[in-house]
Amino acid sequence: MKSLFENNAYEEVVRRVNALTPQSQGQWGKMNVSQMMAHCCNQIETAFGDKKLKPNFILGLIGPLLKKKLYEDKPFTKSLPTDKSFIVADERDFEKEKSRLLNLIKRFYEDKGTLIGSKKHPFFGNLSKEQWAMGTYKHLDHHLQQFGG
Question: Cα(91)–Cα(119) distance, rounded to whole angstroms?
């Protein structure tokens, strides 16, 4: 599994984000490209603890059982349910969200787990910094594939 701490994976994700345009169309799901980038920002902000999520009792019980799905090579299933706090339904500015996402990806890559290694995932429980980096890469890859990137 690729990790967002790896130089090649980081450069690949940056290249793929830079290839997105306001006209990029989703192949599944309800989000447009700007909403998708905002959604991905929310995930990375959660990794840093910048975005706080309310605990969900049910997901808190089953999340640790599903944790290995974050860092196994098998891709995420298309159109998975999204926690309400990660749904972005309002219109977003494409350039603003793209810039925000690229900055967060860079911050994540350069941090190498200094800050994220101490954060408990709100659904999956304790994750090592390597598991955070693999899960974040996989989440970004999933949504970049969604938009053909």
Answer: 30
Using an 8 Å Cβ cutoff, are 33 and 20 in contact? yes
Residue 126: strand pairing partners: 120
> What SS3 string covers the chain?
CCCCCCHHHHHHHHHHHHCCCCCCCCCCCCCCHHHHHHHHHHHHHHHHCCCCCCCCHHHHHHHHHHHHHHCCCCCCCCCCCCCHHHCCCCCCCHHHHHHHHHHHHHHHHHHCCCCHHHCEECCCEECCHHHHHHHHHHHHHHHHHHCCC
Upper half-sphere CA count for residue 143 (Cβ side, 13 Å): 23
Widest Cα–Cα separation across the chain: 39
What does the pLDDT profile of the chain (149 residues) look like in tens digits?
999 999 999 999 999 999 999 999 999 999 999 999 999 999 999 889 888 777 667 666 776 677 787 778 888 888 777 777 788 999 999 999 999 999 999 999 999 888 886 667 777 888 889 999 999 999 999 999 999 87
Retrieve residue 130's tokens.
Answer: 């390597």
